[in-house]
Amino acid sequence: MVELKNVGKRYGKTVEALSDINLSIGQGEIIGLFGENGAGKTTLMKCILGFLGYTGEILLDGEPIDRSNIARLSFGTCEFSFFPELTAMEHADFYADHFPKFRKERFRGLIEFFEFPAYRPIKNLSMGQKSQIEVILALSQGADYIFLDEPFVGHDIFNREDFYKVLLGILEPTETIILSTHLIEEVEGFIDRAVMIHKGKIIGDVQVADIEENGDTLVEYVKKLYGYESDRVSRSLEIITGEKTKRKSEE
Predict the structure, then answer these.
(1) pTM metric for this prediction
(2) How far apart are CA 169 and CA 225, in angstroms?
(3) Under DSSP, is residue 210 helix (H, G, I), strand (E, B) or coil?
(4) Are 48 and 23 in contact (CB under 8 A)?
């Protein structure tokens, strides 16, 4: 289990990116991490992975996360972390050398399924293909906890649907997915649990099945939780069109 206890993160003296985060992530879960741009989703993941300093405590099965256990966590990031000059197959060799539990058969299977150009330098590939290799490597590392930060950059809807289906088919009962995405409606039938973050604080943590039992969809639940105003667009348009009309009459 990954446990976060009173975790906080500041950038400089004034920007509080995370505040008093308490969260437990068990093995075998598929978790959606939701929040607006700048809410703290990526910062939260990077703190867990040790990429950023923080206050509070983050533990993996009761122990601090360090070189002795960091291989149990993997990360697929929309910021890209690959070596651009290397091919996908050269990345596989690198991972196999550094991660004893690297899943070679899973890697080959995903490469074949997505018809990925395995022998071309990654720098020469499309945006969608670059994000695809990030996900493939994260899933193949052999980690227990797989963090995916906006993994669908550049992907069309067909690729995304295929990804959900394949992922559900290959995951083992002990593997956990923590998926940060804005595509809430698409992942509703895929995730077990939804964690909502707003301005650096967790404002919701719920099982998707419980939302459905109450007759809501995940999108409706998230809108209510964030206080989404359904008439926001119409009110803005009224103001904008009113200003246009006023300017024309003045002319």
Answers:
(1) 0.86
(2) 32
(3) helix
(4) no
Q: Assign domain 2-250 to a CATH class.
A: alpha beta
* Encoded tokens for 18: 């995370």
Distance CA(33)–CA(44), nearest Å, equals: 10
Phi (first) and psi of residue 26, to 5 degrees: -90, 165
What is the C-alpha to C-alpha distance for residues 80 and 166, in angstroms, rounded to an integer? 22
- The identity of residue 30, as a single letter, is I
Rg of the chain over Cα atoms, rounded to whole angstroms, equals: 21
Cα-flanking dihedrals φ and ψ of residue 75, to 5°?
-145, 125
| Residue 117 burial (10 A CB sphere; 0-12, 13-18, 19+) | middle
In the sheet where 193-198 sits, what is the strand order? 73-77, 145-149, 176-180, 30-34, 193-198, 201-207
Per-residue model confidence as pLDDT tens digits over 130-161:
988 999 999 999 999 999 998 877 677 777 88
Structure tokens at 185: 């409606």
Q: Could you write out the DSSP letters of every residue in 100-134? A: TT--HHHHHHHHHHTT--TTS-GGGS-HHHHHHHH
Q: What is the DSSP letter of 247?
A: H
